[in-house]
From TrEMBL:
TM segment ranges: none
UniProt xrefs under InterPro entries: TOPRIM_DnaG/twinkle
Highest taxon listed in the record's lineage: Bacteria
Gene3D superfamilies: 3.40.1360.10
Name recorded for this polypeptide: Toprim domain-containing protein
Amino acid sequence: MPKNIIEYESPEEVLKDLNARSHGKYYLCTCPSCQQAEAFMYKSNPTVIYCNRQNKCGETTRIHYTNQEQSAVFQEQSQQKKRTKRWLSSAEREELKVLTANMRYFTDQLGSFDHEKGREYRGLHRGTYQSHVIITPDDKFGTRLLQAFPGLMRRYGRTEQSQKRFENRDVVIPFYDEQGKVDRLLLRSTSPDVVYNKEYPKELHCVVQYQKEQTKNFQHTITSTEKSPILLTESVLNALSVKEVDPDVEFIAATGVNHTRQMKEYVEQQPAPFQERGVILAFDPDQAGQKEQEKWKTFFRTQQIPYKEFPYPDQKRDLNDLLQDHPEPFQKTWQQVTKQFQNRLQLRQGKEA
């Protein structure tokens, strides 16, 4: 049997053997390759396991089932559950209304909170991040979230260990659906004393509208008036880092290198601005980021979207690191990249005219 193909009798045996647990449309489980509990597989396709440790493992493992009949029954049951419509209760709908109103007020009207801690965050000044990120005055936001919205948050905080994951969370990045309602919250911490590990991740994803098959996991600021190249990157903080040195830049950014499918679907459905203005690709320079960037380069070629890769000085620092370490050289590099790319596009358009 090849290295990345393993054999099981049935999906039930896989779930038991790999300590899988249900998480929305996925099963979270142990990676068969590195034996770390940081892998997942889609419920709709329990034949492939993906390791989330992109820079340390990142293996894709395929499963061959010896009992095809049991496998077919399991997948049919999964599809039946998927087809079952789920609804928010009236109490949860009211919670969603209140939560959305609060998030919108903080970002759209208040412009985040006016306090010393919020004047600057990871090299980003309040005027740059205020429409996308909320820095709360204290570190109790995560805990209050569990208490104030028990219906929407009922999947979280069920145990003492899971409640601790919400402690010291004072940074909020909201993602809204097409109706303007909160779909997802990404929580972080400004505390220098926090130790990040598997039990306490740097970023905590909170799916608010859990009844949906998928929730929003990207943001964009693309308009029909701007003509400069569009920045495409794997996180909102990276995109805002460029906005700090170029206030006019427009971007599209995901919630992580493993969450780019929706973003790609958006580009595929709305190709015109990307084809006309071009894209500056700036996934992180690490192994996982560059692996994903290669996929996007292939995708852009098929979509006839011109692109240019951001030239990182090393493989360790992302856009936000560059902003914090050396803002002036970072700004100069960005200006050079955009100018060169725009000149190339204008030359191409002139030849086509």
